[in-house]
## 1
Amino acid sequence: MATIHREGDLSLLSGKVAIIGYGSQGHAHALNLRDSGVEVEVAEAPGSAAWDRAVEAGLPVKTAAEATRGAAFVMILLPDHLQRIIYASDIEPNLEPDATIMFAHGFNIHFGYIKPPAGHDVIMVAPKAPGHRVREQYEAGAGVPSLVAVHQDASGNALAKALAYGAGIGSARVGLLETTFAEETESDLFGEQVVLCGGATRLMQAGFETLVEAGYQPEIAYYECIHELKLIVDLIYQGGFEYMRYSISDVAEYGDLTRGPRVIDADTKARMKEILGEIQSGQFAKELISEEEAGRPNFLRLREEAAKHPVEKVGKELRSLAGREGLMGSGADGAR
């Protein structure tokens, strides 16, 4: 069983915390820490929209090099493919001798793209929600859970620092789950690729295509295979698979239990294991970095192709009706 902590000593966050990057996670971390009484300084590119947003929020903003200087904690919240570049040019040359280096995702440490020098604590605090949700829950007096891990414990107090940071952003209110950089990185990439993003979108798209190709109206196909998925996920989020199956009709439950295994079968699971192997070996990381260095030719082509799929046009039209005619209303079909 996982070890879960629900408190952290904020006094350990003494000195400046530099938040490198004011994007989705960066803005939430910076604002939550500030509101928890922690000294925060944001690093962004001068003249960028993110710089302006941080200034508007009342936060001190500097370049990455300037923010790193004098910082007791340096939290790197840049996109994974940019971290190693900014780290080498602006962060590492300006680190204080005992500064704690922090991440919200283990990608660059686990795959060796960033190799911090000895003498520094290297820790991770990874919220399990997008940044806007991290901020919303904090302001509501709640929080989102975070994963915490230690890669390098130079001080002998690295875990306590991670728990303190987790308390500062509000995650200790619900739970700080101990993990490792390897486990967080590999499980996160796997979940994104085969279930949450890659798997879910391809499953919905394939269902949409199957109905349309069989002569059903695209709008009906969109509602049945895409729109209503949120209703099912909300039920699972509330009470798990059992509660979802209790909430839907017997017809839907019987179809779930008898037909689901025919769609997601042993062959599907075998391909999942293959993808997990690519992640574990570092093959995916190398592919991602190579794609970035080449200017994203394949990535941009795939993104453009996906944007042109008919499901996007139909979905946009239906979503535009929301609030006018109530066509996007909720309610589980056949719910008990």
## 2
Amino acid sequence: MTNRSKRYETLSKKLSGKDILSLDAAVSLLKQCANTKFDQTVEIHVRLGIDPRQADQIVRGSLVLPHGIGKSQRVIVFAKGDLAEVAREAGADEVGQEDLAKRIKEGWLDFDVCIAAPDMMGLVGPLGRVLGPRGLMPSPRAGTVTPEVARVVREYKAGKVEFRNDSGGNVHAVVGRLSFDEQKLRENIRAFVDFVTALKPNSVRGTYMRGIALAATMSPSVRIAA
């Protein structure tokens, strides 16, 4: 059995037994959990009525949240020539080619986002066994394989989040910090939910959005209406 702190147990009693809440009520309740010495991350977890075994029911994407996520993401870029230069100017933390691939093969993974110019995929492809399991592999569908590396770097630096459903048909994402005011948190959460709703695969039948929960780093979850 996992040992919980007294603080966590107190919050659990406060949140337990709550029915599905409106977004306003849920955010207000979650904000009451902001009593730690650090600024907790707020995450959203969405249970979808999809069959993750079916290729045509995969739900993935990325979007720039209205108010960012409250942290600066470390972004690396595989590019050369002019694209490498514009990536640096846009704020990329690391830009490289073979040297960058070598560091990753040797175990360096101190970054949150990996972007690649299309002509770099021959170099980046073999890194899939390292980057893939960690959700860091660049892909055209996610927009991280692109000739517009500068634009994408700026988007991630501004608070872009990327997600893909897991094997249970759930999607997870960071939607802010507990230090955000309630309106900003609500707007970020609503933007994410609306975006995922719009990605409903045509082959899905029945209820698509089956459940939504919010939680902070050190708080129990609270359920909200879709």
